[in-house]
Write a structure and sequence with these properties.
By secondary structure, the chain is mainly α. The chain has a domain of about 110 residues: Oxygen-evolving enhancer protein 3 (PsbQ), four-helix up-down bundle (Four Helix Bundle (Hemerythrin (Met), subunit A)). The protein is about 90% helix and about 0% strand. α2 crosses α4, α2 runs antiparallel to α6 and α5 packs antiparallel against α6. The longest helix has about 110 residues. It is elongated.
């Protein structure tokens, strides 16, 4: 009996201590678990919030980019329309100028006759220079640039020239013609050849620019 009581009295504190320790440990574990659970829940909430904010930011960014692209496309379309209108207007103006130019050319019968005379003279001078016959070339050209045929040719140039490029070729022609007449009268065959080529080339360029080349061939 005493032995039984001894065992009971000896074991009870041990069990009490053990139970107390176990209970305390469980409570600590519960508290720790509860704390961890709260932390995990809070972490998940923040992650969901971050994802939501990230999604909204991406959505807004995409929307802003899309709006910007649409605005740029709209502006580009407006500019393209303006360019088309400007191009159309330019085409109309060019067509109007061509019609006006053609009307002037068609009405310039006398001036085209002067230019045809120039073509004839240049042909004769070219043949004479090719044959080294500068006296014959001199008879066609005359003694200077103040002759009547040179004046009438320049009156045709003045009426039918309408651009800076055409006027430049006229100046080149007159300068080369003056050199040609001087070289022929000096009996300088080499300088005559160079001056003839320069004057004939300038005249051909002028007729091409003015659109008279084919018409002069047909006269």
């Amino acid at each position: 009996m005493a032995k039984s009581l001894l065992c009971s009295s000896t074991l009870n504190p041990f069990f009490s201590s053990t139970l107390s320790s176990s209970t305390s440990s469980k409570k600590k574990n519960q508290i720790a678990y509860s704390g961890n659970n709260k932390n995990q829940t809070s972490s998940l909430l923040w992650k969901r919030r971050d994802l939501s904010l990230g999604f909204m930011s991406s959505f807004l960014a995409v929307g802003l980019v899309g709006n910007d692209i649409r605005r740029r496309d709209a502006n580009a379309a407006i500019l393209e329309a303006d360019d088309d209108e400007e191009l159309l207007e330019k085409v109309k103006q060019d067509r109007k100028k061509r019609i006006e130019r053609q009307a002037v050319i068609n009405s310039a019968v006398k001036e085209k006759g002067y230019l045809q005379e120039l073509v004839y003279k240049l042909s004769k001078v070219g043949q004479a220079i090719e044959n080294n016959d500068l006296p014959a070339a001199g008879l066609v050209l005359g003694k200077g640039t103040d002759t009547e045929w040179v004046k009438t040719v320049n009156s045709a140039f003045t009426k039918l020239s309408s651009s800076p490029e055409e006027n430049t070729e006229v100046e080149t022609f007159n300068s080369s013609l003056a050199s040609l007449i001087t070289s022929v009268n000096k009996n300088d065959i080499e300088s005559s050849k160079l001056a003839f080529v320069s004057s004939a080339s300038a005249f051909e360029k002028w007729t091409t620019l003015t659109g008279l080349l084919e018409q002069l061939k047909g006269i």
